[in-house]
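Homework-ish question, so no full write-ups if that breaks the rules, but can someone show me the predicted structure for this set?
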Amino acid sequence: GAVVSQHPSWVICKSGTSVKIECRSLDFQATTMFWYRQFPKQSLMLMATSNEGSKATYEQGVEKDKFLINHASLTLSTLTVTSAHPEDSSFYICSASSSGTSYYGYTFGSGTRLTVV
Amino acid sequence: GDSVTQMEGPVTLSEEAFLTINCTYTATGYPSLFWYVQYPGEGLQLLLKATKADDKGSNKGFEATYRKETTSFHLEKGSVQVSDSAVYFCALGRMDSSYKLIFGSGTRLLVRP
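A: Not a homework solution, just the prediction itself:
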């Protein structure tokens, strides 16, 4: 079946540095990718939606300049947390769809736990 | 706006026990409802879904019925196994242009032998 590989699975970084998270579709072409974050004991919150070759669409309240999303190819999307701060510590999850029109076909990555110290 | 509320975990059960994980939602109209499962070290997987009121989704022995009158979509299984230990997410979605999913906070299930 469809597989999405997300790396790294966990990362610790110093405050003020940038961190890049990769999301790769291994056996299908992902026309649409979604990025979520989850704080402890809270829901997964959609951060942004990206279509290959287009600028990402960010949800209200998500800082575009802080969370840079690149979806330059049909198999790779990256999320870069710039100038990370402790409040950015969270669990980040990507999902990919080959159809772009049905969430029945979404495949999720295993997530990245970011800790900013 | 739309929202999903799940019971907090962890839920700890002995093997072969009956499982219920409560999920309620707030939404206008008729959204679709889903249960996703995340096994340790893996991504979220769609477990089951229901697209209209009174629909029953089922998979791998799990069931959930779309109850509009109580705005609920509780997950049940008659006899859990150790291999069912995972985190379960209830989600709501709409078939509009964005196809966004709104998730509950997740419920961790631990099944002991």
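Now go work out the reasoning yourself. Hint: The longest strand of chain B covers residues 86-93.
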